[in-house]
Write a structure and sequence with these properties.
The protein contains ten helices and ten strands. The protein is mainly alpha-helical. It has a two-stranded antiparallel ribbon. The protein has a two-stranded antiparallel sheet with strand order 3-4. A two-stranded antiparallel sheet has the order 5-6.
Length: 374
């Protein structure tokens, strides 16, 4: 017998371990292996089909197949898979056409300047020497200003978008290409305020329009010079029309005088008709005896007035867009939308690069004017 002082030993019975799973039969093993491999194939194919590389930073993105246009969450670049690759096969033909038109316009302007000096110079000097000196000075200044501004606007680059790093993740930082798209013509990034011109073959920053008269685009780099050319051309054509009409009136052959009885008698239809016919006959009779210098003056007057009307319309349109703070392309893109830009004279001041200190007094004086009524 055990003594009562000895320790009590208890025995615990453990449950038996679970039986091992039955071995797979030879018929079920290939089916499970085929299902596993098919699932891996689906995962791999879905991943490969929806992997898209961002052109801006080079990161690989997984997207839905129904998102042809997407924006990268890292660099902010916009990718459009529906964009068609541009064709620049006719670029040189367009460029040659524009340059030939520029050369024709330069010859026309030179003819107007030379013909005006040849036709008006002796007439003005015959009136007085002082008038001749003033005419030559004004003509030379307007000619130099118009030709220089036209040459700068035609042959200066309209302004290319800034070159920024792209295509590599270490080089492109967070939001480094925010709002940029990829130009399929230039094969480089294009900012939101840039537009590709097929005639110039480049992306133009703040593009207003492609002007065939200067054979170049009007953009951020030459827009101000283009406006100065329009202003100078309008002033020059106005001066040519005034001085040519004055010179033509000075050398015009005398018109045959009409009898005073025709003008003082009772007026009726037959008398007015005969009076108008007499005036027309006298005018054409005087034109027949007009010299070659007089015909050149008539042509200068008609050409200057016609060109001046077209330039005034273009200048008014350009100044209206500048006053509204937008370009012609932005005006076309915003047509029919509810976007309203701020219209202010400060837009014109900022466009011409005038400092605020130079316009503070003028604008302050203009705004402080009041009308007092009793």
């Amino acid at each position: 017998m055990d003594s009562p002082d000895s320790a009590t030993i208890s025995t615990v019975t453990l449950p038996p371990p679970p039986p091992p799973p039955p071995p797979l039969s030879s018929a079920s093993t290939p089916a499970l292996q085929h299902a596993s491999s098919q699932e891996d194939h689906y995962v791999a194919s879905i991943t490969e089909e929806h992997e898209v590389t961002c052109w801006g930073c080079g990161l690989i993105l997984i997207l839905s197949p129904y998102t042809p246009i997407f924006k990268c969450g890292w660099c902010g670049a916009i990718t459009n898979h529906n964009a068609v690759k541009g064709d620049n096969s006719y670029f040189w033909w367009r460029r040659m056409r524009d340059r030939c038109f520029v050369c024709v316009l330069l010859l026309f302007m030179s003819f107007i300047i030379g013909g005006g000096i040849w036709a008006i110079y002796p007439i003005v000097f015959s009136i007085s020497y002082f008038c001749g000196v003033v005419h030559i000075t004004v003509s030379v200044m307007l000619s130099i200003t118009t030709l220089s501004t036209y040459t700068l606007s035609a042959f200066r680059s309209p302004g290319a978008p800034p070159l920024i790093p792209w295509g590599s993740y270490p080089a492109v930082g967070k939001g480094g290409l925010e709002g940029y798209t990829f130009c399929n013509f230039c094969s480089k990034p294009k900012s939101s305020n840039s537009h590709h011109c097929r005639s110039c073959g480049m992306c133009v920053l703040d593009m207003d329009h492609h002007c065939p008269f200067i054979g170049n685009c009007v953009g951020a780099a030459n827009h101000r010079v283009f406006i100065l050319f329009l202003i100078s051309a309008v002033i020059s054509n106005f001066y040519v029309s005034i001085i040519s009409s004055f010179a033509a009136f000075y050398i015009w052959p005398p018109i045959r005088n009409l009898p005073i009885s025709v003008l003082s008698g009772p007026t009726d239809y037959m008398m007015v008709n005969g009076f108008l016919k007499e005036i027309a006959f006298s005018f054409f009779a005087s034109v027949e005896s007009l010299s070659l210098r007089g015909f050149v003056l008539i042509y200068l007057f008609i050409a200057s007035v016609s060109v001046e009307i077209g330039l005034c319309v273009l200048l008014w349109q350009q100044m209206s867009f500048i006053y509204e703070g937008k370009t012609y392309l932005i005006h076309l893109s915003s047509r029919g939308s509810n976007r309203n830009s701020k219209k202010d004279c400060q837009n014109i001041v900022r466009f011409f690069g005038c400092p605020y200190s130079a316009t503070r007094c003028l604008l302050g004086f203009w705004n402080s004017r009041k009308i007092h009524t009793k």
